[in-house]
Design a protein that fits this description.
33% of the residues lie in helices and 14% in strands. By secondary structure, the protein is of the alpha/beta class. Strands 1, 2, 3, 4, 5, 6, 7, 8, 9 and 10 form a ten-stranded mixed sheet that branches. The longest helix is centred in the middle third of the chain and has 15 residues. The protein starts with 10 loop residues before the first helix and ends with a helix. The N terminus is likely disordered. Bound molecules: S-adenosylmethionine and iron/sulfur cluster (2 copies). The site of S-adenosylmethionine has 15 residues, from strand 4 and strand 6.
C-alpha cells in the first residue's frame, strides 16, 4: 500500500492501467488534473499534531520555520475561474497550517460560489466562529475534518491540544447546516497511527455516528523525509512505479508557484528547480501539458531520471510516499468526488 495522501483511481486511470503491461507504455495525459491543491495560508495552526511538521514545531517558531503568508484573492479567483471551466476537477483548499486562520477565507468562499467551482477543504475545525463554518458549508462540496480521534484523550495524544469537545460540536453544527443535502459531503479522517486496531475503531466509530458521510484513514507519509518513520507499522519502502500525482494532481503554493509535490511546501527552502511554472502568469492547463512535466512523467515511466537537470533534488526518485499510478485498490480522493452529486 502506498503511503501518501489518499488518492483514488478515476475513470481515466483505468485507461492508464490497461496500458501498464505494454513494453513502451503510451499513457494518455488527462487534459486537466483531477485535484488542484491550493495552499491558501501558512505559518500557524491551533493544533500540535504529532504526525505533522507544523504540529511538531513549537508554535512560537512556526512563522520562522515555515514563513508566514496567504494567497492573494486575485490569484485564488484566477485559479477558481480556470478550474470552473472544466467539469471534473476540484479545487482543494490546503494549508501549511490551518486554513481557518486565513482572514480572507469568507471572501474565498464567495468566489467559489460565484464561479461555481467544485471545492474541498482540509481543516481541523478548531474554531469558535460558527458563521465561518456556516459560510464553508454553503460553498464547499467536501469538508474534511482532521478530527483524528474518537475521544478527548485520543485527541489530546494525537492532535496535542484539548479541543475534541469543540470539534465534535462543530461537526454536529456543520451536519445541521448541510442536512442531508447530497451535493455536499462532510467527512472525517485520521492519519495512520501504526496501530491497526485503533485506526479501525476510528472508522467504525465515525461511520456509525450518523454525523458524517464517510470516515477513513490517511496513509501516513513523512513529508518527503521531514518526519521520522512510524515507530510501529511496516517500514517505508522506496517506490517501484510512477506516482499518480503527476497524472492527477496539481500543487500550487501561495505565491502561485506550481510545485512537483505538495509535501515540498512544508520545507523551508523549496528548491527552485522543483517549480513547474507560475500560475500568476500561466494557465494550469499550460503547465500541466508543458515540457517540464512531460519530461518528469517520462522519467517516472522509464525509471531513468538522467534527462532531468534537477535529478539530485527531485524527491520522487526514491520516494516512500508514492501513490502508485497502477493497480492500487485504494479508495482515495476521486472516490469521494464520485460520491458528490
Ligand atoms: C497538513 S493538514 C493542513 C490542513 C488542516 N490543518 C488540517 O489538519 O486539515 C492537511 C491534511 O493532512 C493530513 N496529514 C497531516 N500529517 C500527515 C501525515 N504525516 N501523513 C498523511 N496525512 C497527514 C491532516 O490530517 C489533514 O487531513
Ligand atoms: S491541524 Fe493540520 S496543519 Fe495543524 S498540526 Fe494538525 S495536520 Fe498539521
Ligand atoms: S513520488 Fe513525488 S509527487 Fe509522488 S508523493 Fe513522492 S515526492 Fe510526491
Amino acid at each position: 500500500m502506498g503511503r501518501g495522501f489518499e488518492i483514488e483511481q478515476v475513470e481515466p486511470m483505468s485507461e492508464l492501467m490497461d496500458k501498464r503491461n505494454s513494453p513502451q507504455p503510451n499513457i494518455t495525459v488527462p487534459d486537466f488534473p483531477n485535484v488542484v491543491n491550493v495552499e491558501v495560508y501558512r505559518g500557524n495552526c491551533p493544533c500540535r499534531c504529532v504526525h505533522c511538521p507544523v504540529g511538531t514545531a513549537p508554535p512560537a517558531q512556526r512563522k520562522q520555520i515555515f514563513g508566514a503568508g496567504e494567497i492573494s484573492l486575485s490569484l485564488f479567483r484566477k485559479i477558481a475561474e480556470e478550474i470552473s471551466t472544466h467539469s471534473t476537477p476540484v479545487l482543494r483548499i490546503h494549508s501549511t497550517g490551518e486554513p481557518l486562520l486565513w482572514q480572507k477565507l469568507p471572501n474565498a468562499m464567495d468566489i467559489l460560489k460565484k464561479t461555481r467551482t467544485k471545492s474541498w477543504l482540509f481543516t481541523s475545525a478548531v474554531t469558535t466562529d460558527k458563521s465561518l463554518l456556516a459560510a464553508i458549508c454553503e460553498a464547499v462540496r467536501i469538508i474534511e475534518v482532521s478530527v483524528n480521534s474518537i475521544s478527548a484523550e485520543d485527541y489530546r495524544s494525537t492532535k496535542g491540544i484539548d479541543a475534541f469537545a469543540l470539534v465534535m460540536e462543530n461537526i454536529r453544527y456543520m451536519r445541521g447546516v448541510i442536512g442531508q443535502e447530497k451535493s455536499r459531503r462532510l467527512i472525517v479522517s485520521r492519519v495512520e497511527s501504526g496501530r491497526g486496531d485503533v485506526d479501525n475503531e476510528f472508522v467504525s466509530y465515525w461511520k456509525s455516528s450518523n454525523l458524517v458521510d464517510d470516515a477513513f484513514i490517511r496513509s501516513r507519509h513523512t513529508y518527503n523525509g521531514l518526519l521520522p518513520e512510524l515507530m510501529q507499522g511496516p517500514p517505508l519502502v522506496a517506490k517501484k512505479e510512477p506516482c499518480l500525482v503527476h497524472w492527477a494532481r496539481f500543487n500550487i503554493g501561495l505565491g502561485g508557484q506550481a510545485i512537483v509535490c505538495f509535501n515540498e511546501l512544508f520545507k523551508n527552502n523549496i528548491d527552485r528547480s522543483l517549480i513547474l511554472g507560475d500560475v500568476n502568469i500561466e494557465l494550469i492547463a499550460e503547465i500541466w501539458k508543458g515540457a517540464k512535466l512531460a519530461a518528469l512523467r517520462r522519467a517516472e515511466l522509464t525509471g531513468d531520471y538522467s534527462e532531468l537537470t534537477y535529478e539530485d533534488v527531485l524527491p520522487c526518485k526514491n520516494c516512500t510516499s508514492c501513490q502508485p499510478l497502477f493497480g492500487s485498490e485504494r479508495k482515495t480522493s476521486e472516490y469521494q468526488l464520485g460520491q458528490v452529486e
